[in-house]
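Entry 14. Structure prediction run on the chain below.
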Amino acid sequence: MKWTLRTAAVLWLMLLAGEGVAGAAAGKPEALDGVLNLEGYSFERDGELALSGEWELYWQALLEPGAFADAVPAGYARVPGTWNDQKLDGVDLSNQGYATYRLVVRLDREYDAESQDSAMMSVRIPGAASAYRLWINGKPIASVGQVGIDAAALFCRGLLYDSASHAIGRRMEAGLRAIATC
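Output returned:
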């Protein structure tokens, strides 16, 4: 049997586009301090799940997947939410800028796209006028436009993207490089 986790990445893209979205559905797990613990969560019983809650936020930093070992987050950002709803060190963030988000998801079983005995996951990302790059466990799975630190390096484009399933094991690390100046 194949299971799917269709993350409503509207959460990410609405965040990037500067629009708020209502909080997570009642009774669903949420990320806390950059970790979403799904041990004991049953996708078959409990259904799809949005990756909402507190994501690590690396404000004004465009990190690559391997850079997290040496990086310290500037804080945690509530997803869904707008950047200008966030504060770092007591200072409101601008509605324009760039950042890297990171979320670690703990799972209680293996998810492997190549095994017929294992479940698979996929990610759905609705279109938005933002540039972003999304990776799971260090592998890029979606990219729209070109993320950059200024207008010269930036290219934005709206696009609906539905990824293929990916092998992720029992621990998933999702990273999102994004810009909100489009």
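The chain is about 5% helix and 30% strand.
Filed with the rest of this week's runs.
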